[in-house]
Write a structure and sequence with these properties.
Number of helices: 2
Shape: globular
Oligomer: single chain
Structural class: alpha+beta
């Protein structure tokens, strides 16, 4: 017990000094992904609202590649820049619409890239799911929040 408190104190000092030296690293900082959110709106073939879901349960398979693809296609996004505590933050919005041709249950929404070897999934949004019928129109509104590049 006598050594427990000094050991914990030394551990805290070591952990904080590592964090300080990391934060002082010089050079350009890469864009850091802060969050991706998906809002999913389903309307039937008559335009009536069938379902609305929001999820922040999003997995990015390759963050570096994802940021690169965003940068290459930035003109497809609605981009807003805000400053939070001296840091420039980008809020990017884009949507994707799909009309279903057959009945199914949708519980995943994806951002994928067409490559010569086939589609590559970059982002997966997982949610509770909903049934769709032929003719239902699903629009996914993606919001991507990341630090602005330096």
């Amino acid at each position: 017990m006598r050594y427990l408190i000094p050991s914990a104190l030394i551990c805290c000092v070591l952990m904080s000094s590592v964090g300080i030296s990391f934060a002082q690293t010089a050079g350009p900082t890469p864009q850091q992904l802060l969050g991706i959110f998906a809002q999913i709106v389903i309307r039937d073939s008559s335009g009536n609202l069938v379902s609305y879901l929001e999820t922040s349960n999003v997995r990015i398979n390759d963050q570096e590649n994802f940021n690169q693809i965003i940068n290459e296609n930035i003109n497809q996004f609605k981009k807003t820049t805000v400053t939070v505590q001296g840091q420039d933050i980008e809020i990017l919005q884009v949507n994707d619409t799909l009309v279903h041709q057959s009945p199914t249950i949708v519980s995943l929404n994806l951002i994928s890239l067409k490559t010569p070897s086939g589609p590559k999934v970059l982002v997966v949004a997982n949610h509770d799911g909903f049934p769709v019928a032929p003719g239902d129109k699903m629009t996914t509104y993606w919001t991507i929040v990341r630090t602005a590049g330096s």
